[in-house]
């Protein structure tokens, strides 16, 4: 599946480089994204297959560091590339990177020994079995909402900083990079806290911090760049801190059909991200205030889920 995904990504990147109009570029980007989704989903499945407990949490935190570092570095590299070449070379460079990843995948040993047979209906049955796991389904969906303010900021930050505060693209890049840095630092701190604090305590602290930062954003009202940047840094730091723990905790709810479960988790996360970016793009009186609302939902719903599940667990004893 990784090989297939990378080949699809290479095809999509090549079509992007050859795109003659915006319609073809958007369609090619969709193909590229579908290929990239293989790595996004299977990275979760592989951590479940290969690691347990605290070790898995640390691996997921390391993945979080990489996922935050790449978006922080990418605009700078893209800007440098555009000084010496056309935009098409951005996608050519992605083809080159994908071939490097393809070589890396060829060196991996397949961890699975049993495979689903029976065609498309059998595969669909695996997803049905996953959705019947109520604890997994509720946790996966509620924690997917935690990403609301993060993706909302990605979609709305140009309008907030450039259109709203009149920032230059260079200064905006610094503010945007600081947000990615917060996510990366949160994931790095998670690797240090593993074994020191319990999973639930890390989640409680992170989710309360997200809610608090959302309240601060609403209180300050986004009247200056710093009144947006400081609460958002706290939010993305907390998301980076809690995401490895929540992913590990959600994966603990399934013992088989790990690939299907990972696919569901990735799908829900990016669907929430897509919805938040679509909502922030609407003509709101204050996009900053909407980010604060996103933070309340993104922190409040998973926190409520944890508390309710804890209450039900105590009652069942």
UniProtKB/TrEMBL annotation:
The chain crosses the membrane at residues 29-47, 59-81, 87-105, 136-160, 172-190, 202-220, 226-246, 258-277, 289-312. Keywords: Membrane, Transmembrane, Transmembrane helix, Transport. Signal peptide: none annotated. Residues 1-316 form the Major facilitator superfamily (MFS) profile domain. Pfam families: MFS_1. It is a multi-pass membrane protein. It is found in: Membrane. This is Major facilitator superfamily (MFS) profile domain-containing protein. The lineage of its organism: Bacteria, Pseudomonadati, Thermodesulfobacteriota, Desulfovibrionia, Desulfovibrionales.
């Amino acid at each position: 599946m990784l090989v297939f995904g990378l080949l699809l990504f290479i095809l999509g990147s090549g079509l992007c480089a050859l795109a003659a109009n915006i319609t073809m570029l958007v369609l090619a980007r969709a193909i590229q994204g579908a290929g990239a989704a293989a790595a996004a989903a299977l990275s979760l499945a592989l951590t479940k297959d290969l690691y347990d407990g605290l070790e898995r949490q640390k691996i997921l935190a390391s993945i979080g560091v990489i996922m935050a570092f790449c978006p922080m570095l990418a605009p700078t590299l893209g800007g440098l590339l555009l000084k010496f070449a056309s935009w098409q070379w951005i996608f050519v460079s992605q083809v080159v990177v994908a071939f490097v990843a393809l070589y890396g995948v060829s060196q991996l040993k397949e961890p699975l020994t049993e495979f689903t047979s029976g065609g498309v209906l059998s595969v669909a049955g695996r997803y049905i079995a996953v959705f019947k796991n109520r604890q997994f389904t509720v946790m996966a969906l509620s924690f997917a909402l935690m990403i609301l303010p993060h993706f909302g900021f990605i979609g709305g930050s140009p309008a907030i900083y450039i259109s709203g505060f009149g920032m230059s693209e260079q200064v905006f890049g610094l503010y945007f990079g600081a947000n990615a840095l917060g996510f990366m630092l949160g994931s790095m701190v998670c690797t240090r806290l593993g074994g020191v604090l319990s999973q639930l305590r890390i989640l409680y602290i992170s989710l309360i911090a997200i809610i608090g930062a959302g309240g601060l954003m609403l209180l300050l009202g986004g009247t200056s760049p710093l009144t947006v940047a400081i609460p958002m840094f706290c939010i993305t730091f907390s998301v980076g801190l809690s995401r490895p723990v929540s992913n590990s905790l959600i994966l603990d709810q399934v013992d088989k059909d790990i690939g299907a479960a990972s696919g569901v988790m990735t799908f829900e996360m990016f669907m929430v991200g897509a919805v938040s970016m679509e909502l922030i793009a609407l003509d709101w009186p204050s996009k900053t205030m909407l980010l604060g609302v996103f933070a309340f939902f993104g922190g409040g719903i998973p926190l409520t889920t944890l508390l309710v599940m804890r209450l039900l667990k105590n009652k069942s004893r």
